[in-house]
Amino acid sequence: MLLKRLNLINFRNYSEIHINFYDGVNILYGENGAGKTNILESIFYLALTKSFRTNNDKHLILNKSDMFRILGEFEIGSKQTLQSSIAYSPTEGKRLTVNYQKISKFSDYIGQLPIVLLSPSDLLLSQGSPAQRRRFIDVLLCQSSRVYLHHLMHYNRSLRHRNQLLQPKNKNMELLLSWEENLINNGTHIIKKRKETVEVLSELVQSFYKKLSDGKDNVKIVYQTNIGLNNWDNLHLNFRDQFNEKRDREYELETTIIGPHRDDLLFLINGKVLKNYASQGEHKTFIIALKLAELYYLGQRQTESPILLFDDVFGELDSGRIRKMLDHLGEIGQVFITTTSKTFFDKLEKVPMSVHYYHVENGNVSAQAA
Fold this sequence. Notes:
CATH class of the largest domain: Alpha Beta
Strand content: 15-25%
Number of domains: 2
CATH superfamily of the largest domain: P-loop containing nucleotide triphosphate hydrolases
Structural class: alpha/beta
Strand order of the largest sheet: 2-1-4-5-6-7
Number of helices: 8
Shape: globular
CATH topology of the largest domain: Rossmann fold
């Protein structure tokens, strides 16, 4: 998949811009605060209909404007063109069109434009909260499995209703049990799919980690669920038993404490918890391996090659890790990189792909000679 053109209207610090992009590496360079990350954010938003920086779409609108619009023209398949557009205003909400046809169900659209992001916050995945790791696996699976996205949406809806019924003023056991059944049915699928995917990712991460580090360390990812399983075949029963056992406690806390919304991914190095025993270099190498695994996993399950976004992470990495990471990108497709310096590639002996430069300054983006 190739993003050929991007148009932004009233998005972040851009009043109106039109940019042509190319295959290979597209480098956006400029001062901090110039709007480089805003470009990557708009591409991410166009693919997943949400930002990776805020949950409030109002924050994406240019100051004193009443709406924003993102339009991207993509080359897919055998030189076919796909045009995707998202417009948002606080009064009319979000409107999505693909090839000028309105899309009512966003869940039917997610995954058409596969994308992988590596940002500074991702470098903290191994040290951050379980919520960050759950978000990582959910973004991956929602892009690769429409069935998973369906179950996740219904699970989250059921979770909101059940939490409301755990409030003293809303107590209704019959309704509570009904929403519990929805949580069990959808949550069971989520847990099984996450576990299955984590096992695949773990093998990929181990392979990429060894190639990136030239070392003998063994790394692994383990899916941790709070259902208290003895047998995966009895997941439904274990789920229901946990609800029965913890219901009084949940009434006290007024929230649901059982289910995949409380699960975690455990990152290990040589059998020990990465968070507690790894060096900063090992953490970064692990996350790069994880992102390469995500890229590979998504590419194998989609008809289109994912677009890869690197948001200001090269300042966090030494030239050796950059070199090895780029070597493993191969012919994956299109890459976007933000950096403060146009010359950051100079410390590498060679770049394995064609490179195109764009200078970002004061809400303007201009193509530059290599």
